[in-house]
């Protein structure tokens, strides 16, 4: 999840996860047969060099209020390379909440290249994201030098100034939208691929419309009991793993023998009031002065942990900062708050979903158990934002079993949806098989032999998958100096 305010307040949540809230009872249209395919137009979109098909699917803006009008969902179809081979497409549900299907079109050439040989790949811009009426706040260059209080005030002004029915932007509504898309495109059954938050949405759809789902592939699985802002323990476990790996690596341990102590000392200094810095702006080369706060520092560390290759740079970044050389760390922080990321995530959609579905479950008991530093800023600030959003709590009945075959992919080093989350979700999926990749973080489908395994699973979802090849993915090397990772 993440625009400028994301970079500061929500950097800890990136293309992240979510708690899995059920979509509610299936609407009457769940048993309706597929309709004649909706009219499509040829289109070219960033992330793909091929001509694709774009479809606009009207859906109710508010399923609880028929007079509220309609919302046009943008749907992108990448036709199968071999026409007429498979009638069950792969529907792609992006992460966040707040990421659109059009933001992950590049996966056509990686994770989904083999699948596309025989199946259409359908990317859905969830309501409130991308080209489906994106709800967001605009970023400004000066945001990076604003305080957390100033950023909060600006976001509150954006929330109150945006004329949107925030209560209509829920996972349940998006699940109903998917069924409208299935019918509009004329498919009888679909396969689902969900990443991060998309795994929550995929589970919600499969529960609401079981007859429409042939199989599920869930990558970075959010468990039904997961609460987005309460992710401190999972994040801390990922950070501890990096420290432990560095201690076991002879070269890393030699270069950074006091890594954990240096990290703790930096956090202690930052929590005493921040650290004033003066550095050249990486975009303009002009000198800029600002105060780095504990929240921004810890949020950047959490962001770095998503990908193991990035996490293996963390010891160098921490050690450099502890020596007063903040340039490398700030350069990495700016990367995750770059203006180009504003196209990826819808800030207000993120808040609409989390405020309705997650914050009501942030009980004192849950927060007391959720020990760790990295997501504390998020957990502290989100409830206040939700009071401004003023959305009613979404109902959360106990999730029903999902009978469709499911492939659950987990990275052992994932700081937001680690393997134990998938194991928890699998308890309600009697035909699920879980694959844990030792040297992967948040996202597995594009790594190693995973694209081939996706094709094999979708062709024969009932069969046991041999995923031994995923163990061949190597651990990245540590960065020991300014020249980059060691050979």
Question: Care to describe what's here?
Answer:
The longest helix has 17 residues, at 232-248. The protein has 16 helices and 13 strands. It has helices spanning 4-10, 148-161, 171-185, 197-208, 232-248, 250-255, 259-271, 294-304, 308-311, 314-322, 327-336, 347-357, 364-369, 376-389, 419-426, 450-459; strands spanning 41-43, 52-60, 70-78, 90-93, 121-124, 190-195, 213-219, 275-280, 287-292, 406-411, 432-437, 479-481, 484-485. Strand 6, helix 4 and strand 7 form a beta-alpha-beta unit. The strands form 3 sheets. The protein has a 9-stranded mixed beta sheet with strand order 1-2-3-5-4-6-7-10-11, sandwiched between helices. Residues 1-33 have low confidence and may be disordered. It is globular and about 60 Å long. With 487 residues, it is α/β, with parallel strands linked by helices.
Estimated radius of gyration: 22 Å
**Helix content percent band:** 25-40%
In total, the number of strands is 13
Instruction: State the helix count.
Output: 16
| Gross geometry | globular
Strand content: 5-15%
Describe the sheet with the most strands.
9 strands, mixed
| Class based on secondary structure composition and strand pairing | alpha/beta
- Cα distance, first to last residue? 32 Å
Strands of the widest sheet, in order across it, are 1-2-3-5-4-6-7-10-11
Order of helices and strands: HEEEEEHHEHEHHHEEHHHHHHHEHEHEE
Subunit organisation of the chains: single chain
Average pLDDT: 88
Poorly predicted regions are 1-33
């Amino acid at each position: 999840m993440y625009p400028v305010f994301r970079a500061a307040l929500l950097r800890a949540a990136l293309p992240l996860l979510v708690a899995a809230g059920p979509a509610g009872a299936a609407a009457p249209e769940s048993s309706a047969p597929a309709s004649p395919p909706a009219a499509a137009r040829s289109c070219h979109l960033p992330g793909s060099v091929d001509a694709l098909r774009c479809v606009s699917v009207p859906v109710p803006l508010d399923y609880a209020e028929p007079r509220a009008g309609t919302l046009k969902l943008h749907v992108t179809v990448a036709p199968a390379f071999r026409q007429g081979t498979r009638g069950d497409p792969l529907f792609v549900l992006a992460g966040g909440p707040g990421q659109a299907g059009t933001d992950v079109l590049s996966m056509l050439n990686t994770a989904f290249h083999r699948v596309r040989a025989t199946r259409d790949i359908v990317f859905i811009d969830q309501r409130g994201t991308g080209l489906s009426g994106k709800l967001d706040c605009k970023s400004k260059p000066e945001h990076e030098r604003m305080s957390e209080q100033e950023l909060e005030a600006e976001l509150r002004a954006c929330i109150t100034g945006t004329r949107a029915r925030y209560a209509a932007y829920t996972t349940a509504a998006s699940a109903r939208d998917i069924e409208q898309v299935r019918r509009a495109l004329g498919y009888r059954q679909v396969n689902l691929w969900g990443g991060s938050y998309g795994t929550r949405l995929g589970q919600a759809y499969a529960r609401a419309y079981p007859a429409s789902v042939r199989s599920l592939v869930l990558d970075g699985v959010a468990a039904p009991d997961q609460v987005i802002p309460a992710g401190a323990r999972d994040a801390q476990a990922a950070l501890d793993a990096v420290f432990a790996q560095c201690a076991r690596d002879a070269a890393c341990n030699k270069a950074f023998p006091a890594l954990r102590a240096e990290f703790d000392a930096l956090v202690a200094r930052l929590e005493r009031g921040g650290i004033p810095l003066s550095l050249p702006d990486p975009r303009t080369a002009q000198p800029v002065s600002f105060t780095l706060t504990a929240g921004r520092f810890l949020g950047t560390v959490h962001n770095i942990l998503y990908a193991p290759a990035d996490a293996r740079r963390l010891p160098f970044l921490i050690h450099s900062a502890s020596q007063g050389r903040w340039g490398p760390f700030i350069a990495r922080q700016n990367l995750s708050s770059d203006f180009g990321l504003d196209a990826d995530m819808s800030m207000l959609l993120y808040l609409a979903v989390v405020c309705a579905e997650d914050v009501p479950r942030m009980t004192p008991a849950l927060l007391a158990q959720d020990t760790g530093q990295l997501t504390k800023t998020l957990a502290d600030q989100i409830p206040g934002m939700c009071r401004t959003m003023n959305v009613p709590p979404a109902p959360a009945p106990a999730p029903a079993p999902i009978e469709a075959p499911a492939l659950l992919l987990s990275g052992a080093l994932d700081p937001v949806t680690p393997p134990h989350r998938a194991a928890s979700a699998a308890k309600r999926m009697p035909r699920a098989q879980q694959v844990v990749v030792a040297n992967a973080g948040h996202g597995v489908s594009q790594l190693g032999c995973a694209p081939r395994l996706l094709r094999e699973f979708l062709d024969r979802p009932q069969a046991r998958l041999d995923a031994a090849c995923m163990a061949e993915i190597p651990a990245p090397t540590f960065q020991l100096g300014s020249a980059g990772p060691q050979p």
